Amino acid sequence: MQIRNQQGEIIDHALHPVDAVNDKLIILAHGVTGDMDREMMVKLANSLAKMGWPTMRISFSGNGNSEGQFTESTITKESDDLLAVLDQTKGTKKIAYIGYSMGAAVGSLTAAKDDRINVMISLAGMVRTKLFAETEFGDLIPDQDYMWEDQATPLSQKFMDDLRQIDTIIPAIKDLRLPWLLVHGSQDDVVLPDDSTLLFNHLKGKKKHIVIEATDHSFAGHWKQITNHINEWLKTYL
Q1: For the chain, which terminal residue's Cβ has fewer other Cβ atoms within 10 angstroms, N or C?
Q2: DSSP 8-state secondary structure symbol assigned to residue 113
């Protein structure tokens, strides 16, 4: 299956199938500077498939082996990428979206305008996009400097403008009533734990907020625990 976004760019993806017939699908997406082949993405997808959940990893355009330029990547464009992925899920009756970091903001904004997402899971999910932009990159020069001094990930003006224009995802999700699991590390200094607290307080549907103590943005050493939480949430609401 080939997935193309509105620009005609191929969205790289990998499906982790299960043995039993299953009309459900988990879509798993990465954060800023990431891609579907990061170790955490692969391990999480493999674990979920072993638990009986068909899982699709995706790389947004301009990231990993997807077509497109990294400097064109924004939350808004990645939301369009996700809509293109959803267009290829015909025959799937229920879909859960798991977004990590900025990927959670992408999923949130997509779910606000497309009812094909039935369950949401945010892992270290970004909520206050403008605050993130100013905190992490506010002292850099767009189209000249690099994200976290990595020359493979140049900081673009489009990226910064999009984060600032969105500001926060709260207005977009205010009427959603999806079952929503939020997981955050207590020592996350990239996407602050208060982002998940803020989102949790505004959600109207079934919701659960889990704080993993003494861990940062990467959740290092805690992925088995997190996967178990995800599995229980999916069993209950998907």
Answers
A1: N
A2: T
What type of residue is 160?
A: M
List, in sequence order, every beta strand (DSSP E) within 107-176: 119-123
Average pLDDT in the chain: 97
Give the chain's domains with CATH numbers: 13-129+169-237 (3.40.50.1820)
Q: Is the pLDDT of residue 175 over 80?
A: yes
3-state SS string for 39-56 = HHHHHHHHHHHHCCCCEE
Instruction: Determine contact, residues 150/124, Cβ cutoff 8 Å.
Output: no
**Per-residue model confidence (pLDDT) at position 19:** 87
**Other C-beta atoms lying within 10 Å of the C-beta of residue 15:** 12
User: Of 67, 90, 63, nearest to 5 (Cα)?
Assistant: 67
Strands 13-16 and 55-58, how do they pair?
Answer: antiparallel
pLDDT, one tens digit per residue, over 30-41 is 999 999 999 999
Quickly state the pLDDT bin for 93 (edges 50, 70, 90): confident
Residues in the chain: 238
Q: From CA 166, how far away is CA 170, in angstroms rounded?
A: 10
With contact defined as beta carbons under 8 Å apart, do 218 and 35 qualify?
no
Name the pLDDT band for 100 (thresholds 50, 70, 90).
Answer: very high
CB 52 within 8 A of CB 96: no
Within 10 angstroms of residue 121's Cβ, the number of other Cβ atoms is: 27
Question: The tokens of 89 are what?
Answer: 């899920």
- Output the pLDDT for position 20: 83
pTM greater than the 0.90 cutoff: yes
